[in-house]
Structures are given as structure tokens and as C-alpha cells.
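# nightly structure sweep
# worker-07 picked up a monomer target from the shared queue
# config: single-sequence mode, recycle default, output format = C-alpha cells
# input follows
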Amino acid sequence: MNIHEYQAKELLADFGVGIPAGFPALTVEEAVAAAKKLPGPLFVVKAQIHAGGRGKGKFKELGADAKGGVRLAKSVDDVEADAKDMLGNTLVTVQTGDAGKEVNRLYVTDGVDIAEEYYLALLVDRASGQVAMVVSTEGGMDIEDVAHNTPEKITTITIDPAQGFMPHHGRAVAYALKLDGDLNKQAQKVARQLYDAFMALDGEMLEINPLVETKDGKLLVLDTKMSFDGNALYRHPKVEALRDETEEDPAEVEASKHDLAYIKLDGNIGCMVNGAGLAMATMDIIKLNGAFPANFLDVGGGASKEKVTAAFKIILSDPAVEGILVNIFGGIMKCDIIADGIVAAAKDVNLDVPLVVRLEGTNVEKGKEILDNSGLPIVSASDLGDAAKKIVQQVKKAA
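# output follows
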């Protein structure tokens, strides 16, 4: 789960991390009120969307010469003008794609006199089972170019969660940032605070870009992105309450309500599978047969009739779907029960695209019999390869 910049900063502040003063705003009036609470005379007005590259982004509704989604304002009147420009308009960045994202929230912060910009991020290194702390002296909007063109300027420090953050990790961060004196001590402290927040909140990613050194010698988190392990949110109701569903795909939001794992893709073959590994294999074999999956959808091991119906509705909400492949291994859930759910769901949603079903496992013959006697144009498949070939053929025939 992702959250907005201002929400991430509020969480980090609870762990003692230094951040500039700032306030969120949903309206132009709230943005003006926020600016009046800040000392000024410089303010920063930031569009709040779940995507990076806001500073270099462009608003669809504004001219090509218009400023991006992060703006320096020299007065309260400038803050008001920027808020009017941004709110309700669509910001397109390198991470949003051409569709962009509508800006419904702003973050108005106090201006900071910047001496240097750094980069610091924490990630889960799944290969080693450790936390990777990524550090660079080249913070700012072009960090992707730094990673591509001068990777030697990026240092990765691995931390074993069983051991935790140790003093030598902090020293390694400060050394990588080439800081000495009081700034060296501050860097060690900030690195520990960020690690503590990352672990305590079950973070998946915490990116500080930039971490800035101010002209009066302080380290502040100027911008941040943070995401969390969705499977651990039950432990963090405060974090879960920060979810902004308007920033998410509506189909993915609906899927989460039914405990379905759904991710929209760019193809035309809808997939309904139980088990993540089987789902990946199903998508691969669809591509092998010359078509492309429209989604990843894992109904889990205990798929009920209601869950299967919800899954069908979600798949069909995508206008790009021209056919559906169901690939179910009946282990915990028996194939006949799955078949009943498929038939009921197909009737409930008035299915009007080709449907191929491959069942395997407990009571598979009963399941196939239910499908064959349903009176619906459901095509049964003997194995995964057969299923993929049949759905691709059916879609081509219906085109």
C-alpha cells in the first residue's frame, strides 16, 4: 500500500526524523490557510499523487510552458495561484503514464535554503532476506540517471533484521554521503531513525529524495515516498487508515474488498486462477500461444461461489477483455464446488465472451460434468497447454 508524501512525513516525524513544517490541503482555501500558518517568505506547493517525477511533470489542461507539480511560491498569493492551477487537473509524470493522475490534494511546506542534496532509501532485499539501505551523494530529480550512468556513485548497505541497525551501519551511511563533523553524527542518527520507522511499520519501500543539508547545517527530509506490506496492515490500523482509494485502480480496490489478489495488465485474455505460482504459469503460457493476459487474479485456495462471481465481475469490468481462462487446481476447494461457482457466476454476470475452464484435483470429473451440463457455452480443457490454445482460438474466432 502506498501513501502520500505528507502522510509519510507525519509518520516519520513520530520517529524523530526532521522535516520542514507543512500542511496538507484539499481546497484552494485550505492551501492559502496553510501558507499563512508558515513563517515564509518562501513556500513550496506540492501536488500529492502516488507517483514520482512530480517536479518535471506536466499538467494536461495547462500549456506546455506551465510549471510542474512541485512549485516554489514567493508569497501567499502565489500559493493561491498554484493551488488553482493544480487542484482538479491531471498531472502526467514519467511514472503515471500518458493517462496521468488527477490532483486532489496538495502539500504546502515552508521553503528551505538548500546547501546539498542527498539520496537515501530502504528496500527489502528478497534475495538475501535483508534490508538494503541505498545511499548516494547525488540526490534530486535525476537519481534515475545517476543509477544508469554513474552507478559507482550509489552505495548499498545491507542490514540483517535479526541483528538490527548497528553503529557501523550509521557510520557507513555518513561515509557514503561524505559528511563529517556534526553532519556526520546527524546522518548516523537519521539513518537509524529511518530504519526504525521502516521496520516498525512493516515498510516495503522508504525513499528519501532528497535528504537535504540546509545552509545552517541541518539534515532534513525534503521529500519522501513510502509503501507498506499489505499483508501486515492488520498490525497497523493507523497506517491502513491513510489509504487513498482514489489513487488506486477501481478494479483493484473492488478486488481487495473480496480478498482477491488482482492486478490489471495490458492484454485481452482475462485470467482467474488459484495460487500465485499457477497464475504466473498461466500468464506465461497465454503469451506462449500468441496472446496477452489482461490481468493477474488469484482467488486463493478457498474460493466460494460469491468470490468467483466477484472475480468474474472484476475481470469483465475491463473493456479490453475478449475471453476468460479459468485455471483451478482443486485441493482445499473441491472441483465440483468450483464448477458450481463458475456456472452461477457466468449466469449472474450474463457472460458474453468466450470462457475456457481447466479443472484439476479433487472431484475433477464431477466438476467437468457440472460444466458440461450447465447449458452454457463453456469450453473444457484437459490441461493448461490445451486451455491456453483453446482460449486463444476462441477469442480469434469471436473477433
